[in-house]
Amino acid sequence: MNEERALPIDSLDATEMPDGLPRQEPVAAVRPSQVADRQLPEATLSRLTGYLRVLTSLQADGQHSASSGVLAEAAGVNPAIVRKDLSLLGSYGTRGVGYVVSELSQHISKALGLTQEWRVAIIGAGNLGRALAGYGGFRNRGFDVVALIDADPQLVGQRIGELVISDGTDLAAVIARDQANMVVLAVPAAAAQPLCDELVKCGISSILSFAPVPLQVPAGVHLRKVDLATELQILAYHAQDVD
Amino acid sequence: MNEERALPIDSLDATEMPDGLPRQEPVAAVRPSQVADRQLPEATLSRLTGYLRVLTSLQADGQHSASSGVLAEAAGVNPAIVRKDLSLLGSYGTRGVGYVVSELSQHISKALGLTQEWRVAIIGAGNLGRALAGYGGFRNRGFDVVALIDADPQLVGQRIGELVISDGTDLAAVIARDQANMVVLAVPAAAAQPLCDELVKCGISSILSFAPVPLQVPAGVHLRKVDLATELQILAYHAQDVD
DNA sequence: CTGTGTGAAGTTTTTCACAGCT
DNA sequence: AGCTGTGAAAAACTTCACACAG
């Protein structure tokens, strides 16, 4: 298997959906005995995924170890922050040497929760939903797309790659049948919030939405948003003075 | 659709690595005379796009004005930060009342550079590229998709919606013909960097990449990245303790 | 009185810089 | 000598809280 990917760049920002309310305490009670695995800063988190990609490439290249400097350059960040990020997972580096590629890769995967199986249901079999269903980048990274769902009877039953579009009118049943534990929402804006509510009722607590609307989810449900128009708008802003 | 590519870790600082400075764009030496329009914080920027969306729907609802509280709730943020963000554009609110929807909408659009025409070329007519070409959310927001480009002769000439896939072997010609000033890269990982370089040569300075690789671009070129796998990985992390 | 605009306080994240392993 | 791990300083960003305009 020579699956390979290369370095990340510095995926910043991204749209950030807050958990909703101005909560005060996230649930206190830190576990001092446990490694401080939990509660990695959001910023660290997105860099970690980048390091992981770099490490995968390095591993494919047969590199045994790498210093924070090398990782930093490949990931497009500052070496100090690489060390700080990694030290949050525990200290797995060797002074004077760096980090053992395979080992670090393991640790990060574990910290990110990638060792467990993630079963993704894609809701919305329109252009985007179908494109996502065919995207190899998910499966390669441990995310198994187990269902492609739409409420349109015209689409139900149609075959897309290895998937057959399931009937979304009984969402709970499909989610349960395919044992999805994560959902990608690729539906029109108007449909997003109602679906979101329904998903929460089904027990889904991780949702990646492509719908260009702010969604409200109860605390405890994790929602991330990818907003294509927003990305272009931000580019437009930056491009103004350059063009 | 997995492409791979042995990454040239050792040769990655070709383009933009600074000579020793903190990789920033020191281009501007602070222009006090210039309006403080430029240089909106990145965080503010992504919220502004959110407000814009909220305003659009308020406008459609016939609302004449809205307070920071209303905007904040709809956008899922804190009212104070709405006021702070908006005050960075200048003070367009009325004390005791709020903001005039249509007016504010204008101001934000202008600040984001959305008043000019943006002509987007999508490179890569695979699943994702085609899906993006058919995505209405771009045009609605002032981004005109003027070309869908691929180098595969099998695809060239094929019609997708209102677009005909253009031949990417002479990228410069297509970009020039269609007068694109922004590019969306929806190509396999291996193709991304070379294309990126070529685009820069064509004078493109705003690129939105979906390729899961870090891309190097010279200073002055704006690159944003959307990484689907990263999003799922971050969700996975958060979901660990919940599931 | 209502709701903006904003200094000041608070919080989070990044960078610096260096002691201390290997 | 080289590079990690980390306090401490700096910067960025958010929230508070209140004077004051309408």
From TrEMBL, chains A, B:
SUPFAM superfamilies: NAD(P)-binding Rossmann-fold domains, Winged helix' DNA-binding domain. It is found in: Cytoplasm. Residues 1-21 are annotated as: Disordered. InterPro entries: CoA-bd, NAD(P)-bd_dom_sf, Rex_actinobacterial-type, Rex_DNA-bd_C_dom, Tscrpt_rep_Rex, WH-like_DNA-bd_sf, WH_DNA-bd_sf. GO terms for cellular component: cytoplasm. Keywords: Cytoplasm, DNA-binding, NAD, Repressor, Transcription, Transcription regulation. It comes from the Bacteria. One of its GO terms (molecular function) is DNA binding. GO terms for biological process: negative regulation of DNA-templated transcription; response to redox state. It holds the Pfam family CoA_binding. Residues 113-214 form the CoA-binding domain. Residues 50-89 bind DNA. NAD(+) binds at residues 124-129. Homodimer. PANTHER family: REDOX-SENSING TRANSCRIPTIONAL REPRESSOR REX, REDOX-SENSING TRANSCRIPTIONAL REPRESSOR REX 1. HAMAP family: Rex. Modulates transcription in response to changes in cellular NADH/NAD(+) redox state. Belongs to the transcriptional regulatory Rex family. This is Redox-sensing transcriptional repressor Rex. It comes from Paeniglutamicibacter cryotolerans. The lineage of its organism: Bacteria, Bacillati, Actinomycetota, Actinomycetes, Micrococcales.
